[in-house]
Amino acid sequence: MKIAVAGKGGVGKTTIAAWLGDFLARNGHDVYLVDADTALSLGQASGLEREQLPQPLVLRTDLVTERIGSGFMHLNPEVGDLPGDLAVELPVGLADSGRDGAGRKRLLVMGTVTGAGGGCACGANSLLKALLAHLVLEAREWVIVDLEAGVEHLGRGTVAAVDGLVVVSEPSRRGLDTAAEIARLALGLGLKRQALVLNRHQGRAEPPDIAGLPPLAASIPVLPSLTARQLTSGSVLELEERSSLIDPLCRDILAALK
């Protein structure tokens, strides 16, 4: 299954993407986590140190020239080998029963995708677009794509073929209005399986009735262990609330997209 995670900046979508990837890997699935956000924080959220992060594909001018060309551009480049060659292994959190049967979790760092899907002739963007399309259409593994904040990727059609969309928001009118806009754009691209996640949501109040807002799949309170860790670590994994709260939330999100 291929899942995109979207929302306005600062709402926690990268955290949700990291949790989903780790939950799936701990339950025996092979997963590609794709960082398509300019913040490039998915690797750290998933347990890597900053110095372990790979160079974003968009900056690999050697590879862009090799696959796209420097004069007449090949807009349908061969990219089938790139996920295996460029992906960085991510640590898989320990399951309650140990590591036996855990899947594989790998990270691909894309960088900025400016105009992808919108007819841009830029070589780097063409390569990124082709690689995303390959992962979405051809990869047998689970794929979790952490999108740029806002609606740029969806508006350009970058992930039009994903199976499901997780829209993340904080419990604010501005965040929910952005979430509804993202959902409407996705629906226009044929993405009907959508789920809303409310992050840092104290209490159980339902979100307001906003046209286009997906059904609420999960509500996440402020997590004390994550708050305590944020100044010293970029990782959002192995939290105290994993078994009691985070894993059940991941199950709820995935069930809502089926």
Describe this structure in words.
The chain is of the alpha/beta class. The protein has a single domain, classed as 3-Layer(aba) Sandwich (Rossmann fold), CATH 3.40.50.300. Helices cover 34% and strands 15% of the residues. The protein contains nine helices and eight strands. An eight-stranded mixed beta sheet has the order 3-4-2-5-1-6-7-8, with helices on both faces. Helix 3 crosses helix 5 (123-138). It starts with a strand and ends with a helix. The model is unreliable at 115-121 (pLDDT under 50).
Strand order of the largest sheet: 3-4-2-5-1-6-7-8
CATH names the topology as: Rossmann fold
Name the overall outline: globular
What Rg, in angstroms, do the CA atoms define?
A: 18 Å
Give the percentage of residues in beta strands.
15-25%
CATH architecture: 3-Layer(aba) Sandwich
Can you count the helices? Answer: 9
What is the H-and-E element order?
A: EHEHHHEEHEHEHEEHH
* Average pLDDT over all residues: 87
- Counting structural domains, the number is 1
